[in-house]
Amino acid sequence: MTEITITTTDSIDGREVVEYCGLVSGEAVIGANIVSDIAGGIRDVVGGRSGSYEKKIETGRQEALADLRAEAEGVGADAVVGAAFDYEEMAEGMLWVNVAGTAVQTRRA
Question: What is the distance between the alpha carbons of residues 95 and 91, in angstroms, rounded to a whole number?
């Protein structure tokens, strides 16, 4: 299995795009449990960062990236350029994480 390179830029140093394979994306929906909700609420009141929510967001980001890699591999790409994340609150305690970019085939320059 080839490692899929993902970058937010439109190019990859040392490689040139030889074929555009299309738009690909990955999504994850994450929810917080009651303990995280309470801890997050306390942090909101007294200030500071909510480590439990940050961990959940990181998990969602990694799941979305895994989906993006799988979709890129499915269209024969070895890289994704122009990747961008989007986060949206779907409902109280539910967060949607999306990453999308252009799947490409590259070769060493």
Answer: 7
Residue 36, amino acid: S
pTM to 2 decimal places: 0.82
* Among 91, 59, 83, CA closest to 6: 83
| 5-108 to CATH, choices 3.30.110.70, 3.40.50.150, 3.40.50.1000, 3.30.700.30 | 3.30.110.70
Span 63-98, pLDDT tens digits? 999 999 999 999 999 999 999 999 998 877 788 999
Cα angle value 78/103/67 (rounded, 5°): 85
Boundaries of every domain in the chain: 5-108
CA distances from 71 to 17, 24, 32, 45, 81 (A): 18, 6, 27, 41, 14
- Residue 7 has a CB neighbour count (10 Å cut-off) of 14
